[in-house]
Amino acid sequence: MMVTRPALSIPDYELLRPIGRGAYGEVWLARNLTGSFVALKIVHRAAFDHDRPFEREFQGIKQFEPISRSDPSQLAIFHVGRGDDFFYYVMELADAVGADSRSKMADRVQKTDTAPNLPSPIFHLPSYTPLTLKHLLNNRGALPSDECLAITLSLTRALAHLHGHELVHRDVKPSNVIFVGGVAKLADIGLVTSVDATRSFVGTEGYLPPEGTGTRQADLYSLGKVLYEMSTGC
After folding, report:
1. To the nearest whole percent, how much of the chain has pLDDT over 90?
2. Exposure pattern of 20-54 as b/e (b: 16+ CB <10 Å)?
3. Domains in the chain, ordered, with CATH?
């Protein structure tokens, strides 16, 4: 059962229900003033032992937000805000589990240069669950070659764009890959930081290179592990 802190009051957004949780906060299904559904992540200062890592995560979001909408391979950040003991950011909402994204993946292999960030399919609000690559692998095993190609191209482009702006993701894994309009995108961007930031041990065991995270090469190593899982199912 997912345990969350009481919902905060976020200006201009109605928090509907939690749809994900990480070490430092939770992701909410939210609705804005115009009625559009979005994902809203709240990061709590109390989840950190010291101010420094909390501020480092906030700085990472501030660095990522300006570039997040400049390439369709990235997860778009619409807004960043801050309270006394938390900060939050508003993101594109992932497709729903059960939506037929399978055919869209291959169709979009040649469209990522021009395709805008498309709205997620209509979903059933009470049962909405974000569609992740981990969910696909758990339910289908190894993916067909055309889907592997589409996902690989999208994630490779996302990392190239990130690295080109001197940023690294630091936690590439199947559960951090979501689908938006059938396009695979890197989510959980809270660990994004600059390539020259102080190295720290973050990420997920099993996807980390021996030397640890924090470099472009480490992101590519993690991506390679993801691609292996996609193509083999194990």
Report:
1. 70
2. beeebbbbbbbbbeeeebbbbbbbbbebbeeeeeb
3. 13-91 (3.30.200.20), 102-232 (1.10.510.10)
